Amino acid sequence: MPDNTVTLVGNVTRDPELRFTPSGQAKVTIGLAVSRRWQNRSTNDWEEQTSFFNVIAWRDLAENAAESVEKGSRIVVTGRLEQRSWETDNGERRSVIEVVADEIAASMRWATVKVTKVDRREGGGSSGGGGGDGGASRSGSSSGRPVQKQEPSYAGGYDHDEEPF
Questions:
Q1: Whole-angstrom Cα distance, residue 62 to residue 64?
Q2: What is the pLDDT of residues 88-122, one digit of tens each?
Q3: Quick one: three-class SS letters along 40-86?
Q4: C-alpha closest to that of 140 among 91, 74, 70
Q5: How many Å separate Cα 156 from the centre of its chain?
Q6: For residue 152, what are the CA distances in angstroms to 16, 32, 33, 69, 119?
Q7: How far apart are CA 112 and CA 106, in angstroms?
């Protein structure tokens, strides 16, 4: 059976954007830059290549990541690749491949974190299983909470950004 699991380690390129679907599900989008560095054996020069990814997380993971991650943070993301397609107003077909995160963690290679367990019992319980997942918090952060936006409604009754379940 094919497996579609990916693990990325990289730097956050912009502050997370937390939004809510019309049904109230939290969704966060995080830009991630992943760099690869190697030594060219012909010239002995160091070369580097950077790839950019959009990381999407849902529900409690989305809210915890939005609270804990900021531009410049080094994070580890485990999830799956998902292709999404749409048609522009001009009738052009577009598609993008995104990483839908199952886990997001702070990289502790060059930083330390203080983990704070989030109590999800207040407010009606947790969606999606285990509940009470731990979230990492930064000490000394001055960024505050990320911008929260309402997701737009979609014609036809299907929200292409909402993860089906």
A1: 6
A2: 999 999 999 999 999 999 999 988 888 888 877 65
A3: CCCCCCEEEEEEEEEEEEEHHHHHHHHHHCCCCCEEEEEEEEEEEEE
A4: 70
A5: 27
A6: 18, 24, 27, 24, 29
A7: 8
Dihedral pair phi/psi, residue 137, rounded to 5°: -120, 150
**58-97 as b/e, with b when 16 or more CB fall inside 10 Å?**
bbbbbbbbbbbbbeebbbebebeeeeeeeeeeeeeeeeee
Strand, coil or helix: what is 8?
Answer: strand
Q: How far is CA 83 from CA 94, 134, 162, in A?
A: 10, 29, 13
For residue 107, which amino acid is it? S
pLDDT tens digits, one per residue of 21-61? 999 999 999 999 999 999 999 999 999 999 999 999 999 99
